[in-house]
Design brief:
The complex is a heterodimer of chains A (about 290) and B (about 180). Chain A is an all-alpha fold and about 290 residues long. Chain A is about 65% helix and about 0% strand. Chain A has 12 helices and no strands. The termini of chain A are far apart. In chain B, α1 crosses α2. In chain B, about 80% of the residues lie in helices and about 0% in strands. Classes of the chains: A mainly alpha (about 290), B mainly alpha (about 180).
């Protein structure tokens, strides 16, 4: 990089007054003796006159109440997406108490409930997974997440496979897809009329449960195609879980369009066909 | 590296403290929104991007080592989501452009006098003409007032690259807005 180029790359900082005294003097001296760089500086100054950085940040123009809604929106989305796997098995009780004392109470009450529930779940899980004769772990799945040898596992990509030989985990995956399909079929078949409010309470709570279930399943030994399908389903389920109460026809239509545009029902049927060992052609073309 | 107080907040949020995470959101939400709005130029989209960025941060907080600045990490997510939003909007616009152009032609044909050029719209259009990285640098460095170092961390490139993109981006904008500056509109 030659001297002129170096100066030109620094002109913006120079014109904005962001340089130290030494650099400022160096550039001023260069501009005084270099017509081309001086012209560039003038052109940049002209541009910055019309393209000025805003003196007021866009966020400052929004009322305080807006930010409360913003935070509530973030919390709602997190709740809909399911909580991430915590670092430790149980959340620190001291944190929950601190939240309760300092921060928003409804959230704190939820936190305490979550901690208590987590403790109960962990206790039950430890009890349930205590080794009976072997070395414990989830049935059909070794601690590192790979299927145990000697137990047949049906994979989404396998065409041949008998449901009776599925592991508990695969059965749970199949159940997740079956419930998702039922919900989506219901959504696509029940779009309310113009102006009608649509009570989606049941669908919303079902979708929330499915979002939580998918979150667990996607951390398990699930094949890539099923994982992607869960991801697609998740998007719709989260949208559904976040629908406002009494949402009208437009929301239902948008959801139905989303289901159709992602070919979700088709993909679900294809997956079912693969898992059940039904020839794909028959599953697709038979009504 | 985050300040000790912020490090404590991050640590508590990682352990599952809703209150600590909420404080992080409160601390960074306005900046996240500002960055997003400069990219997407629409309030609802900017809010969507900023909220989604916090959801992703919450999801990945367990893997945040804390050796990088939390803000930089968040702003990188906001920048990426904003660029994705623009991309998806563009692909949608491909199907809508024909209709928009027809409406614009009809409204121009209806009004007799030429409309006054709107400076904001001209600048917006000029920004839109810039290649992605140049536009990102101009938006982050100039409109959001982030330092060269911050921008280089967000975009994961060297400070020299940021300076080069800023220089080229502004030069191109100067060219695109040439008549504006010389005519003194």
């Amino acid at each position: 990089m030659n001297g002129h180029e170096k100066i030109r790359l620094t002109l913006y900082d120079y014109l904005r007054g962001e340089l130290g005294d030494e650099e400022k003097m160096e550039i001023a001296a260069h501009l005084a003796g270099c017509a081309r760089c001086s012209r560039e500086a003038e052109e940049l100054r002209d541009l910055l006159k019309v393209f000025a950085a805003p003196s007021v940040r866009p966020s400052d123009a929004l009322p305080d109440g807006h930010w409360k809604t913003f935070i509530a929106g973030v919390e709602r989305r997190i709740a809909a997406a399911g909580r991430p796997a915590p670092v430790g098995p149980v959340r620190r009780v001291s944190d929950a108490v601190r939240d309760f004392l300092i921060f928003r109470r409804p959230a704190a009450i939820r936190s305490l409930a979550f901690s208590a529930t987590a403790a109960v779940v962990v206790a039950v899980a430890v009890w349930a997974l205590l080794p009976v004769g072997g070395d414990g772990g989830r049935p059909g799945v070794s601690p590192d997440g790979t299927p145990e040898s000697g137990k047949a596992v049906v994979r989404g990509n396998d065409v041949a496979g008998i449901p009776d030989t599925m592991t508990d985990f695969d059965r749970r995956v199949a159940e997740y897809f079956r419930r998702s399909k039922t919900l989506l079929v219901g959504m696509t078949n029940s779009v309310p009329g113009e102006g009608d409010a649509h009570d989606l309470d049941v669908e919303r709570s079902a979708s929330r449960r499915l979002v939580h279930e998918a979150r667990y399943l996607r951390n398990g030994p699930v094949d890539e195609r099923s994982w992607r399908l869960m991801e697609d389903l998740d998007e719709i389920m989260i949208e559904l879980a976040n629908l406002d109460e009494g949402s009208g026809r437009s929301s239902s239509v948008m959801l139905r369009d989303g289901i159709k545009s992602r070919n979700l029902l088709f993909k679900l049927r294809m997956r079912e066909a693969r898992s059940a060992g039904t020839p794909v052609r028959q599953a697709v073309y038979t009504k | 590296m985050p300040a000790p107080e912020e490090r404590d907040l991050i640590l508590r949020a990682k352990e599952g403290s809703d209150g600590a995470f909420r404080l992080l959101v409160e601390r960074y939400m306005k900046r996240a929104y500002d960055i997003a709005i400069h990219f997407v130029n629409d309030h609802d989209d900017a809010q969507d991007v900023a909220q989604e960025a916090f959801v992703r941060v919450h999801r990945s907080l367990g893997g945040f080592r804390g050796d990088a600045d939390f803000g930089t990490w968040l702003y990188r997510i906001v920048t990426n989501l904003s660029m994705n939003k623009i991309r998806s909007r563009r692909s949608r616009a491909r199907f809508e452009v024909r209709g928009d152009a027809m409406i614009e032609n009809m409204s121009h044909a209806g009004s007799g006098a030429a409309a006054e050029p709107d400076m904001t719209a001209l600048i917006e259009r000029a920004l839109h003409e810039l290649p992605t990285l140049q536009r990102a640098v101009v938006l982050l460095r100039h409109l959001n007032g982030l330092s060269t170092r911050e921008v280089s961390s967000i975009l994961d490139c060297s400070e020299g690259t940021v300076k080069t993109h800023l220089h080229r981006g502004l030069k191109k904008m100067r060219k695109l807005l040439d008549f504006v500056a010389t005519d003194g509109i």
